[in-house]
Amino acid sequence: MKRLSHIFLVYLFLITMLSGCAEQLPLEDMTMQLMLGIDLSKDNNLIFYETNPVFSKTSKKSSETIEVKATSIRDARNKFDTKVKGFVNGSKIQVILIGKKVLEHPDWFSLFDTIYRNPKFSLNSRVIAVDGPLSSIMYYQSEDNVLLPLHLKTLIDTNNRRNSTVQTTLHELHRQIYEKGITPSISEIKDGTQLRLTGTSLLNHKGKHVHSFNISETALLLILQKEERGEVSFTHFSLPINNKNELFHQDDISFSASNIKTKIKSAYHQNKFHFDIKINMPIYLGERMFPYNMSKNEKNFKKMVEEKLTKQFEDLIKIIQAKKIDPIGLGLYARAHHYAEYKKVEDEWGKALATSTINVSVKVDLISTGNVK
Amino acid sequence: MNTYIKNEITLMQFILVIHGLQVGVGVLELPRKLAETAGTDGWISIILGWILTTIASLIIIQVMKKNPHGSILELVTQNFGKLIGKLVTILFALYFAALSVIILIRESLFIQKWLLPQTAFPVLLLLLIIPSYLIVQHNIRVLARYSEFIFYISLWIFIVYLIPTKEAHLLNLLPVLKDGMKPILQAVHSTLLSFIGFEAAFFLYPFLRQKQAAALGIVVANTLSMLLFLIVTIAAFSFFSPDEITQFKEPVINMFKVIEFQFIERLEIIFLTYYIFVISTTALPLLFLTVFCTSKLTGRQDRHSRHLIWFFSALFIYVLMSSPTFQQNSQWQGKIANLSIFVAYLLPLFLWMFLWVKHLFQRRELH
């Protein structure tokens, strides 16, 4: 009797599991969004784009792109549904593109509410700012027919490894928006004659775009954030030696730096925050376009490099302070070490940072100068 | 009394049943709850809660030592008479029943929200209660083995959880004691609720084979849970900004959301599916204790499974007729919270004082 009832229970269990079969969804009936784009039209209407792969042998295109006018991401999904064959599914979005026109208005972040609210969304999608109209990128068709969303994702990831751009995922963006001691920075691309990465967009604490860093400035920013990965490569780095040539930059060197140590110390006196940033850079010389007696003048060479690097960091910080933003996250140091003082200014941290003093000093160790003298 | 000796459990099982009871669905929300009241200093509250829990659990063992061959139900019956004994049995049965209902419903709500949003709620509950029945209908030894087994096979979750900490910002934790002790003390209430479950020692003690090691066992169980809460909380505090962590209802799940491997992108789905096992080590002992009390009440120890069927049927019919929500479930949790604190932290103290005073009087009568 007992055995029988057990068998009955196991069967009941298995039958209950069958309820999952009723809601089956074949892949062909699904429209998997891989890329989502948000832009403003000329008359300030929100335009949403999505790109999804096409699973069809007869189709020449590997993906299709749709645009709709809508008020929010959810609203856009409903409107996408009326234009495509299958159910629109946002759980596989790899890349989210935002037009710079959207970023010029503060508080655009509220559009993203559904992404964090709906458990189906992945929080690893890369967020990218687009300089120029979004339509040219969304309908961009490369000659070898690669899926653009995957292309963009890889573009961001590999360039982040090369320290050319930040890697801001949806999760990281949420942190940077809510954290009062840091302002967001997201990757930036541009469509000219060819689609390319231009560097990093800097937003203020409300999300408004205030400045863009190019690729070499981004590398410096990553060093200050302690987020640099592997080797940081410096090229077209001209030194003050009189060796001008009109055609060839014969005052240039290139080098790479790895194992960079950045130390940030903070202090508070005279109603001001003070930050002392010490950067220790072991460098490997990769290119020197001019003759130089290294064994004799190594000290002088190091000094020239240090001075130029310090100048570059200082210029970067000047821009940050002028724009009243803090992409480095110095606010975190202020909060950790001067909590009471920081709490008073945390809502206007960018302004407080603009009035504080930031000193940078760079120390270079010349590890190797290569195989030739 | 025979039932206790027939179903002895080992010290390891004793430890892991208690630990399993403490670690369940609450851990997913713990960092947020602590951050809401005490900010990033919330981890200190865990240590304070652990100290209180250790004291309370040692008192429980002291109380149970007075009557090593019976559970708290026999102890109360012996000291206060049959009527009060029955009353206490009913109260305990209701208490454990309420806890099991809350956890089973909350577990199903989680599954529905994160994993199977299309499936009807009663179906999910049915899928939970059938395997639960198949385990709980047996004796405590089967249940203890189950808890031990689940503990060992779930250790990987913990290792994977630490992967996102490579993006941690330890600066978030500083300064320590930023707003003084007051918020930390306020958050101790939440941590005490996480430790709830060790009061099962009132019932597990007579089953334990090595009774001399009971105190050690319960301290190890509490310490194990404390270390887990502490690491989970500190990892979450350093990973999320203190300004954003209160935005996420279950920050622990969000940490899994961020992990991305080459071969798998939505790891939180796998984690949550697996975590159902971990939650089951909270729900199943509670279900067992419920029917243990009710079958004590009817005086027939072999009626576990029958009571269990009644209990599950009632629960299933209730769920068919009403549709539970997270909000309602949290309200219930809030209501039972104070009762839990009383049963786990104050009741042992009262009993201990009572037995001590009684002992004093008995000694005086002898002289």
UniProtKB/TrEMBL annotation, chain A:
Residue ranges constituting the Spore germination GerAC-like C-terminal domain according to the UniProt record: 198-370
Record localization: Membrane
Example of a GO cellular component annotation carried by this entry: membrane
Species per Swiss-Prot/TrEMBL record: Peribacillus loiseleuriae
Cross-referenced Pfam families: Spore_GerAC, Spore_GerAC_N
Main location: membrane
Membrane-spanning ranges: none
Assigned keywords, A-Z: Germination, Lipoprotein, Membrane, Palmitate, Signal
Membrane topology category: Lipid-anchor
Residue ranges annotated for the Spore germination protein N-terminal domain, each copy included: 26-190
One GO-annotated biological process of the protein: spore germination
Name recorded for this polypeptide: Spore gernimation protein
Membership in a protein family: Belongs to the GerABKC lipoprotein family.
Matches recorded under InterPro entries: GerAC_N (IPR057336), Spore_GerAC-like (IPR008844), Spore_GerAC-like_C (IPR046953), Spore_GerAC_C_sf (IPR038501)
Gene3D superfamilies registered for this protein in UniProt: Nutrient germinant receptor protein C, domain 3
